[in-house]
Amino acid sequence: MTADEIAELKPEVPDWQLLERDGIARLERSSPSRASPTRWPSPNRVGALAEEEGHHPALLTEWGRVTVTWWTHKIRGLHRNDFIMAAKTDALAAESGHATRAEIPEGRAP
Amino acid sequence: MTADEIAELKPEVPDWQLLERDGIARLERSSPSRASPTRWPSPNRVGALAEEEGHHPALLTEWGRVTVTWWTHKIRGLHRNDFIMAAKTDALAAESGHATRAEIPEGRAP
């Protein structure tokens, strides 16, 4: 993907951080810390999604915090598919029955 | 633990790497890569062990490779218990029904 293509897709996954590690661009998102309410799918649900799609993230579980990182090995960088997988991970979080930013109608907060 | 205590216990877990990250001493071991036969417990089994013992490692799953890292948050370093947890992780791997180094009698190889 070109920088323009990345800039175009990034707003679709606002909660993900675009970062470079070992010279490879990646999309990463962490759950809130253990003390906060869970708004993030379990490692098992992300693992099941990865199996279904045949595309595997790095999945770090550490003291109750889960970090998911998507990138594409073969191209050593980001592919459109990584943005799709990030959005699908967000959708799993929403399915968990916890409110996500997208579900809270703006302007209707108490 | 003092450096002497660490040096005394380290031989008990020969397959673990002693490393320092963010100024914190840790014990770390990775499974063989995806292509190799699995000789390492699944993240779920390590997670279950952690729950039982009330002590949680960092657990990284990445393209079929599982990396387990033990250290003790509270003391920002290694406690004897981390060596025990490393040995218990090895025992889980052995239970998985795969040969481990300890199970192969030396001098009897074909």
Name its key features.
homodimer, 110 residues, alpha+beta, 4-stranded antiparallel beta sheet, 3 helices
Model description:
The structure is a homodimer of 110-residue chains. Chain A is an alpha+beta fold. In chain A, 31% of the residues lie in helices and 21% in strands. Chain A contains three helices and four strands. Chain A has helices at 3-9, 43-53, 80-95; strands at 17-21, 24-30, 58-62, 65-70. In chain A, helix 2 (43-53) crosses helix 3 (80-95). Mean pLDDT of chain A is 82; it is low at 98-110. Chain A binds chain B through residues 43-44, 47, 56-64, 73, and chain B through 43-44, 47, 56-64, 73.
Shape of chain A: globular
Instruction: Decide which structural class fits the backbone of chain A.
Output: alpha+beta
Oligomer: homodimer
Q: How much of the polypeptide of chain A forms β-strand, as a percent range?
A: 15-25%
Secondary structure tally: strands of chain A: 4
| Strand order in the sheet with the most strands of chain A | 1-2-4-3
Provide the succession of SSEs of chain A.
HEEHEEH
Q: What is the end-to-end distance of chain A?
A: 42 Å
Helix proportion range of chain A = 25-40%
User: How would you state the average pLDDT of chain A, rounded?
Assistant: 82
- The number of helical elements of chain A comes to 3
The interface involving the most residues is between:
A-B, 13 and 13 residues
Poorly predicted runs of chain A are 98-110
- The biggest beta sheet of chain A, please? 4 strands, antiparallel
Rg of chain A, Å, rounded: 14 Å
